[in-house]
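Dear colleagues,

As part of the handover before I leave the project, I'm documenting each prediction I ran so the next person doesn't have to rerun anything. This entry is a single chain, and its sequence is reproduced below.
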Amino acid sequence: MTNASSPSRKGFVLAVAAALVAGGAAGWFWHSYRADPAANLGAADRAAIETVVHDYILAHPEILPQAMENLQKRETASALSSIRGEVEKPFPGAIMGNPQGKVTLVEFTDFACGYCRQSVADVDALIAANPELRVVVRELPILSEESAGAARMALAAAEQGKYGAFHRAMFAAGRPDPATVEAAAKTAGVDLDRARRFAADPRVEAELRRNLDLARQLGFNGTPSWVVGDAIMSGAVGKDRLAAAITAAATARQ
């Protein structure tokens, strides 16, 4: 029988501690380890591991933000798996690219968001480069009441089959206000009387509430935010990063 001071036990303790530190998820480790009663550690071994981990964290506190980030990514990925169908299902007409495309890029956006405006060209370029790309846009007007008005008009434009045209025209018009919203709608060829009636429909308000709820479940607190395949990203991440995620999602489908 070996004891706590034996080389083999020390090696085992250090190996487990190293894996634990690298993973940044002590709770997950102990839950998984205890699932196999035959593999349970003794109290002395557990105390030794906890001491190693404690001392390592004190010496290298910079690992904590990384560990928390990794844990958050795991939790967000778990949340996505349970609501993916709802996230990828567009409000009728609020879709760009190929409606039947095999890869779906979801964008949470706000017409008052400058970074969202910068991302319009990136998304258009990705659509042009990927015939199988389906872009679902979720209106998330969290910056101002004016952006909420623009979001409602966008969904009304979607009901008329004019979503993409309004989306681009609204971002080109600058910050949303009643005048720019109306100008963008006219540029997109939207029937304004019909659109105003539809914008007041309870389905529109329900969609905006749904988008806010989905954003919260995914941990998004700003725009633009993105979902493609298993990748979840926030901010103006740029065309190249989005393209890489699209490629990864397409490959995963094969």
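The chain has eleven helices and five strands. The first strand starts at residue 95 and ends at 97.

All the best with the project,
I.
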